[in-house]
Structures are given as C-alpha cells and as structure tokens.
Design a protein that fits this description.
This protein is mainly β. It has strands at 7-14, 23-30, 38-44, 50-55, 68-70, 77-83, 86-91, 101-103. The chain has 2 domains: 1-35, no CATH class; 36-114, Immunoglobulin-like, CATH 2.60.40. The protein contains no helices and 8 strands. Strands 3-4-7-6 form a 4-stranded antiparallel sheet, with no helix packed on it. It has a two-stranded antiparallel sheet with strand order 1-2. Strands 5-8 form a two-stranded antiparallel sheet. The two termini are 25 Å apart.
Length: 114
C-alpha cells in the first residue's frame, strides 16, 4: 500500500525447497502516493516491437503527441498506446542499436487536477 513517503520493499526467494538451485533478492522502491514517476522501461521484441513504459499511477486520457520521442538519430514514434499505467511506444521503423527515449514531464496521471 502506498504511503505519504516512498518505501522500500525487500523481495527474496530461495529455490532449495522446490529443488531449484537458484536464489535471488531485490529491493523495490514504492513511490509516495503523491509522486507520479516512471517505474520501469523495457524493449518488447515481438512481431511489432515497442518500448513499454510503466508509471506509478494510471495515465490520464490526454494527447501524448510530442510528449514522448526518440533522440535525434532514433526512429520516429508511429503510435502510442495507453493501458492503465503503461504507455507502449511503437517506433516508426525497426532499428538496432541504442537509442534514448525522451519523456516530457507534461504526461499527467488521474490524480492531476487539470
């Protein structure tokens, strides 16, 4: 449950009891309830690849045109899809290499009063 301040959650598992020779641990930060931020991003490779952006809150219905774009030498943005707190960024062309995605602070969540 989110509080008025950010909190760390420790996650750990040991697979020995299930006969698996693997253990892992990680710390996840849960943002404060009044904080809207990008939680994670990852490239999804499929028939139509995209970048998945996960935010701390559901995204408010709004025009995202110009709010998310690839750096100068990157592909353009063909389409943006919003699903609750996820924005899927579809590039206009499939490219290999490293590209920076620029995310404008103008993206709003449902908690924004505007």
């Amino acid at each position: 449950m989110r509080n008025s301040s950010a909190q760390d959650v420790n996650f750990a598992f040991d697979g020995k009891s299930a006969g698996v020779d693997r253990s892992e641990s990680a710390v996840y930060t849960i943002p404060a309830i009044n904080s809207f931020e990008l939680i994670s991003s990852r490239v999804v490779t499929s028939d139509e690849p995209y970048v998945s952006l996960i935010f701390s809150d559901p995204i408010k219905e709004q025009s995202l045109t110009g709010l998310i774009k690839f750096e100068n030498n990157g592909p353009g943005v063909k389409n943006l899809e919003v699903d609750l707190n996820e924005i899927k960024v579809y590039p206009s062309a499939n490219r290999t290499g490293d590209y920076q995605l620029l995310i404008n602070k103008g993206i709003q969540n449902y908690a924004d009063g505007n």
